[in-house]
Each structure stands twice: as C-alpha cells, then as structure tokens.
C-alpha cells in the first residue's frame, strides 16, 4: 500500500513530531506486541482458477446448519429473492454517499423512503439515514441526550450484554456515568429503577423484547423516566414491533434497534445497520444524516441532506455525535425487504414467530427437567433450564444438523422464527428428549 499513501516520508515525520511520537510503531503502543504483525509471509501469486479452488476448499470447513434455533441479536428470517436482486444493482452497490444532492437524487430518495418506513414501524416523527449497527444506535441515543446538569444514564440489565458494553464504551469517552438497572425474574427491576433515578439522570434505556425474549411493561418504565425529567429510549426488534405497542405508544423519546432482521442474512459480524427514530421535539439532536423532501427551482420534487448534527457540518463543541456516514446499502436492503413483504406480510411473519416460539416452548417443557426459566409473555425468544450440561446438549444437536440455543446463565436462550417448521421443532424436541434421558 506504500505507493497509495499520498504523503511523503518528510511529511509523515512532521506529523509524527506534531503528535509527539517518534515512529508509526509508537502510534500503536497501546496494542499488545503479540497482536502486532511484523511482516506478511505471502505466497507467490496464483491464477484465478487456483484461487477459486483454494477458497472453495476453505469454505468446506464451514458448518452449515439446516436447522437454526439461535438468535441473541442476529435472526434467521426469510428474505425474498427480489431483495438481493434490487440491492445489488450497480447504481446502488457502487454508490458511496450522497454528498452532491443534485446528482444523487435516486440514492437520496431511497434513503428518504427508508426513513419513512422506520417512522411507520416505530410510530416516531423522524428517522435518520441509519448508523453503523444496533449497538452503536443505542450508544448514540444515550449520547444525544447528555446534558451538563444531567451526567448519568441508566440502562436495563435485561439489554443484550454486547449493547450494554458498547454503550459503556461510548459513555466512557463522553463523560457520562452509566449505571445498569438490576434484573429481577428476567425483567427490568422496577423497584431498583425507582431507587436509582433522580434529577442527575439524562436518559433511561430498555430493550423490547428484552435479551431474554420477555415483553416488558415499557409504558411504566417510560412514565418513571419522564417523571424524573429524563428522556426515554427504547431498543426494539423491527419485526416484533409490528405486533407490539410501538415506541411512540409507550412514550419513548427515541427508538433504536438493529435492522438485520429486515432482509439482511446472518453473517459473521455484518454488515448490519442501526436504525434511529425520535420525536419531533428532539429531532435536531439526531446524529448522522437525515434526508428531507423539498422542491427545486422548477417546483419539482427533490431530496436534500438536512439537519446534520455532526461535527463535519457544525461547530464541533455543539455536535451531538462525530459519526460521519450511514449504512445506505443496508438501509436500501431494509427498504426493499419491507416493500416486498408489505405491512401485512411483516405482521404475518411476526405472528408466525410468536406462535411457533410458543409451540416450541410448550413442547420443550414436556421434557423432564426442562422448564421456562422466567415467567411473562415472550415474542420469539425464551429461556429454559436444562437437566444436562449445555455443552453436551449443543454437541448432540450439532450432530443432527441443529444449531441450538445460546447458553446464558443457568439456562439456554432459544429463538424460533417463521423459518422453523413444525417438523423442525418436533425434531429438535425429539433430540432433546433423547439427550435428557
């Protein structure tokens, strides 16, 4: 890559001196030496045919599960063929970012349509053009409500642990004290929330359904937050929200979540997208980009980037975020997915998830030693106990081509979607019965 670096050796040395280090290696002093690569021992070049054969051989090492009963943040949903057909069109696939509105109208319109759909899903007034992923969306939402007088944020312990970790990382950098609300019976402990909240709290974040799949009383949590003068943030599953109360109906000031269920396949880390929506009263705090609809000099419909509350466009000290891009291709994918299924189709998908998950839970609990770990209503995830070592159970399921649930404290977090047929569920239960004997 040396020939692609536009700066000269002298310029690089000058920059290093300016930041107070002697070499490029000094810039990475915080990275453990064992993790730093000294040199690349690359083989000699190969032909396209040879490379393809090597890659195919490597791919055979992958374990592809025909039956998937695991979620915990990434979900296996049906994706119509048209989604990939549209989203991989060259004009979308190669577009980076719509800096020049006058020549990016098509891309801007696709983002505008995405924002509109997110608002329809959540019931909120305005959506941004997406952020990196669901975890960063949660962190950005907490950061956007920070206040000089209110320096603390509360997050439910029933939120996905990886989301909590990401929010904590953001808070460490922005001077926000993050406190985790304890969990009671798999849900946010309301008594603990009442004890923790005061006039120093800027926002309260909860997840619906929560990490354990349970549907919480989101309206009550919102009322407690607002009574203390804090903002209320809900992290929601975009499929579940079609059959549950919307964040707007629960009194949320902002709604965020992971958009992966909206047409993006399960992949090793993404790419995914984080959606963010908010009420009109706080829309100027939304990070990243927002596309607006207007008219041009001839009175024709046109699209523009607007309300960009980020450090590239306004004074840095006034910016609520330094996020500088959006997941436009993933947002387009989500738009095509929602359009292909339609409102009725997504609701039908959600109802299949709901009914199949409850059938699976009922059948599992017919096995001696398997019980629901928590009470309460759930969507498509639930936690059960296991009478045998979870590693042994998962290994036996894997032998039958089944990716089992995700092991959590004293239990297993199962996920059932519309992709799991009754036959698949019955096979899962049959294998579990054999192992549990």
Q: Mind explaining what this structure looks like?
A:
With 437 residues, the chain is of the alpha/beta class. It has a seven-stranded mixed beta sheet, sandwiched between helices. The longest helix has 37 residues. It is globular. It starts with 8 loop residues before the first helix and ends with a helix. 41% of the residues are buried.
Estimate nothing, just give the exact number of structural domains.
2
Query: Sheet bearing the most strands, described?
Result: 7 strands, mixed
**Beta strands, count:** 16
CATH topology of the largest domain: Aspartate Aminotransferase, domain 2
What is the CATH C level class of the largest domain, in words?
A: Alpha Beta
Order of helices and strands: HHHEHHHEHEHEEEHEHEEEEEHEHEEEH
Roughly how much helix do the residues carry, as a percent range? 25-40%
| Distance between the first and last residues' Cα | 59 Å
Q: List the strand order in the largest sheet.
A: 2-10-9-8-7-3-4
Features:
2 domains, 3-stranded antiparallel β-sheet, alpha/beta, 437 residues, Aspartate Aminotransferase, domain 1, globular, 13 helices, 7-stranded mixed β-sheet
Please sum up the structure shown:
This protein has helices at residues 9-19, 24-27, 48-59, 81-87, 90-93, 105-122, 134-144, 161-174, 190-196, 218-227, 328-364, 390-399, 422-436, and strands at 67-68, 126-127, 152-156, 177-181, 183-184, 187-188, 201-208, 231-236, 254-258, 274-278, 290-295, 301-306, 381-384, 402-403, 406-408, 411-415.
